[in-house]
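Work Package 3 (structural annotation) set out to generate three-dimensional models for the target panel prioritized at the project kickoff. During this period the team completed the workflow that converts sequence records into discrete structure tokens, so that structures can be stored uniformly alongside our sequence database. As a representative example, we reproduce one entry of 127 residues exactly as it appears in the project archive.
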Amino acid sequence: MPKALLRPGQYLLVAAMFAACGGHWLVLQSVAWGGMIVEYSRTAKLTVAVEKTFDGRHPCGLCKQIQTGKWQEQKRDAQVLVSQLEFVCATVSALVPPACEGWLLSVADCFSDTRAEQPWVPPPRCA
């Protein structure tokens, strides 16, 4: 595969994995925290602004929206997971083949008689 196509494909794969793991929420939360630090530092010292940002008692509007979005996404994922598990269990039970012990014994007996010579002593070594 040409390298010109390989590199963008790798970037897309990383971006898809990032989004599937909830990375978009991390980016949005970081933006919200940065905005809160800037906003709070206008009226107080930087240490007080950082403390107010991360204490959890002073969430901004974006923080509240992020929390609501995470909760809705988890709720939706839980519903999808339950329906997928029921579907998987139903199909797996139909795919299990019946056990056939007689066939396995006949194959083992068939191959045990074809090799009658003894192994070399000592075993051959690669040069």
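The two ends are 37 Å apart (CA to CA).
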